[in-house]
Prior knowledge:
Layout: H1 12-33, E1 37-39, H2 47-52, E2 56-58, H3 60-70, H4 73-82, H5 91-101, E3 119-123, H6 128-141, E4 145-148, H7 160-181, H8 187-210, H9 227-231, H10 236-255, E5 265-270, H11 280-283, E6 289-294, H12 309-318, H13 329-342, E7 347-353, H14 357-360, H15 363-374, E8 378-383, H16 393-410
Parallel strand pairs: 1-2, 1-3, 3-4, 5-6, 5-7, 7-8
Helix pairs in contact: 1-10, 3-5, 4-5, 5-6, 7-12, 8-10, 13-15
Bound molecules: iron/sulfur cluster.
Amino acid sequence: MELKKTRKRLQANKRLREIITDFYADGHRAKAEGRPVVWIPPMNGLIELFYAMDIHPVFPENWAPLCAAIGTNRQNFTSAAERGFSGDLCGYFRNNVGYALAGIEEANQPLGGLPKPDFLISFGAGCIPTQKTFQVLCDHFRVPVIRADLPQVAMEEIKEHHIRYGVVQTERIVRFLEEKTGHRLDMNRLRQAVVYTDEACRLWDEIMALRATVPAPFSAAEIGIMFVMVTRHGTKIAVDFLREVLAEVKEKVARGEGVIPHERLRLFWDNIPLWHNMAVFNYFEKWDAVVVAETYSAAWSLRLDPERPMETLVYKSLVSYPLVSCVSLEKRLELIVKAVREYKIDGAILHSNRSCKPISMGQMDIGRVLAEKLGCPSVMFDGDHMDGDRFSFAQFQTRIDAFMEMLLERKNL
Length: 413
Ligand code: SF4
């Protein structure tokens, strides 16, 4: 079955496409102008540091969804497999390693491809595939590398001594960058970058809170707006864009305009979206259902302190996988239960993601707790956020249709 593109996208999407194009173009401009390019792990809390030092950050993990959306992921998977990397590994890993080791040399890559790194920053935190990605990149590119350490600690266990340790590590990175680039870190610029990030996080919270409105002003199909939270923290670009999104969403709420005309069911999506098939979110429209919250909704719900820029960025780094590696099951349950209550969720869709074990672990408990504590039913389906060959739409359809019918019956609709 061919899934249609939803007709109900936010206008701000046009601006988002420009921001995405410009981010990659800026990487190539940086290369051409001799500005350093650094590849860093995903959702890294130190983006502000790079922008404050005129160093262009590249996030291989953020590149992967783009490859999946455009379809170059298949070739990257093949390149990774040809080099002996198992098909059972995370799709981000297979895509990024395949791209870095082969695809980067090929013409006609989406958005001109990635500029090669002048340095690599590898943090000893996050999931194992992320750390292993950087190990492969370090072996391959043979550019200066700094492997900074960061404790892997559950977000609710973060103490002052973890922050102090992180600051020492961050100062090591600063010394490394200053030495390699000759650019000095200006603390005033860093503070300004933190101010931008703090404002971006505040706007993000405000936008996400508006999704609790019935009918919901936008669906999970818009989750691409998180691009600015990953790549443009520390810049005015993120702040201006999120202001634009907020204004548009506020207007929709004021008009009582939902993403679908007759909203009957509100859903929560657990785990990463299917980047290779985002149209799946539109399938729920058949049932007048809309995904109003997802795992990522709470991912940037934090405040930063510009008066303590280093400490606050270390804190951000420590929680940079807030719903993945740095969270206990208790905390994850707490966040999901809170979302189900706040967003008035009727049912939860649990994407059992073959690629991502860290997020898929605990989903049986999530389903049980939602049912026992909130009387909220859930359904699980097998998929893969990067690999379309590991997702059967027919199976998804069978499960979802039965689940939606049950939810409608429960509400006597
Ligand atoms: S968190 Fe999951 S999706 Fe992200 S790199 Fe790790 S295993 Fe892959």
